[in-house]
Amino acid sequence: MRSQLFILLFVALLLIGCSAREEAKPTPTPTPVPTPPYSTPVSTPATETPSQTPTTYSETPSPTPPQPYPTPTPLVFGIKYRVTVLKVVDGDTIDVRFENGEIERVRMLGIDTPETSAERNKPNEYDGITNLSCLEYWGIQAKNFAKTELEGKQAYIEFDSEAGLRGYYGRLLAYVYVDSKDFTAELVKQGYARVYEEGECRKEAEYLKYQQQAFNEKRGLWSCLISTSTTPTAVVIKTVHYDACGDKSDSKCLNDEYVVLENRGGSINMQGWSLSDEANHRYTFPYFILEQGNAVVIHTGYGTDSQTDLYWGSGKPIWNNDHDTAYLFDSTGKLV
Prior knowledge:
Blueprint lengths: L1 H23 L55 E11 L2 E6 L4 E6 L2 E2 L19 H19 L3 E5 L13 E7 L2 E2 H7 L4 E2 L8 H13 L18 E7 L16 E6 L4 E2 L4 E3 L5 E3 L4 E2 L4 E5 L9 E3 L15 E3 L7
Parallel strand pairs: 3-6, 15-16
Antiparallel strand pairs: 1-2, 1-5, 2-3, 4-8, 5-6, 6-7, 9-10, 10-15, 11-14, 12-13, 12-17
């Protein structure tokens, strides 16, 4: 009986040990089923799902090198462009605005007007003229003429292929037309300008003909070649208007007190001549050409000199109403 129990106990222990070893035994890994070659992930890059939108990044543009400012007007030779004259700089130079708003400085082509100050003019630049004060006077007259005819008005400008589009200082070179006439030529005709023969332009021969006519007649700046000497009797005192404004005080209307001179000879440069009264109040003439047959009025007060009127610049009356005498002296100081 005791041996049977021992045998049963031994068998039970054997069964327990076998069960423990089976639990500790690792579970074998199943062999994977091979997939077809086209689905092998090793050689095929991952493909994004179509529903996903790839992220894009904008590249920073490369900096553009600075470019010269383009001229908005396509300037072409031989075409007349309509412009507005904004400013007259001097007799031959103007500032203009094109119809598209572009503003340019224009140097009139083929001509040269005198400078408006004596020291900026040069002796013999105008065919032997050495009187620089005379050239200054005509430089101012040329500027005033251009202001009257051009400033604030519409004009046309035309370029010349022989001269080029721009000059040394970057200004446009152009003929200027106003009221259907060549204003550039008009400056030469009236003696406000010489022909600029140092440059090139197709109208040079035409302008030289106008210059010769002005030179022969001593118009404008060409009168600077006229000698100041003349016969003593060529210029005479025609009138002395002593009593200004009648019953009013003369000091209230000084420019109504005046002397009238008349030229009965050839053209005369009055520069250096003088006019005085009995008390030796003296007026000295600036550069002024008194043409043959013309008269000039010398007013006592202030004003702007012109070809017909000169102004003494006195702040009080000169000529006595009851009695006075006017004396005229030429440039040598000789009584006329």
